[in-house]
Amino acid sequence: MSLTGEFLIFILLAVVAMGGGILMLNLSKVVHMVVALVFTFISIAGIYVMLSAEFIAVVQILIYSGAITIIMLFGIMLTRHNDVSEPKTSWPRKIIVFLGVIGFGVAVYFGIYDLDLGTYETTLHENNTEQIGVTLYTKFIIPFELMSVVLLVALIGAIVLAKKDEEEEAKEE
């Protein structure tokens, strides 16, 4: 295996993605956790660019790095927090979790090492945005519309739950 520029960029993006995930799990301040998560999202968008999926990369940055992160920060700022610190995790438990993660990684590696998905003629790198749109609105129109209904129901449910909390707080006062 030769060390090409593309390979080195992939390794850099993969290390940043994994580092952001590890930092997110180990940092104690919530805002720092969100910043680490943004690093992970942006590095994954970089990997999408390397795969010639520019549309997906832009969506990754706009939706995840932008909207989801802002929603998480608003959720953190608008909720009440009890400053009850959780007990520290013991070293044996951390070692067991680390060995479990390593075991999972090895199982995934051997699961996909000789995986043959066949060869497909594709021109996705030429007009990927157009092809995604055509496929989404022809083959997958029913799941697409069902997903929009599910998201609408989730939004209405969140509003109803927030109203109930507001009413309960008003009754307590």
Structure description:
The chain has 173 residues and is mainly alpha-helical. It has a domain at 1-80: Four Helix Bundle (Hemerythrin (Met), subunit A). It contains six helices and no strands. α1 runs antiparallel to α2 and α2 (30-50) runs antiparallel to α3 (54-78). The chain is extended and about 65 Å long. The model has no long low-confidence stretch (mean pLDDT 83).
CATH superfamily of one domain: NADH-ubiquinone/plastoquinone oxidoreductase chain 6, subunit NuoJ
Number of strands: 0
**Range of strand content:** under 5%
CATH topology name of one domain, in short, is Four Helix Bundle (Hemerythrin (Met), subunit A)
What is the straight-line distance between the termini? 69 Å
Q: What's this model, at a glance?
A:
This protein has 173 residues and is mostly helical.
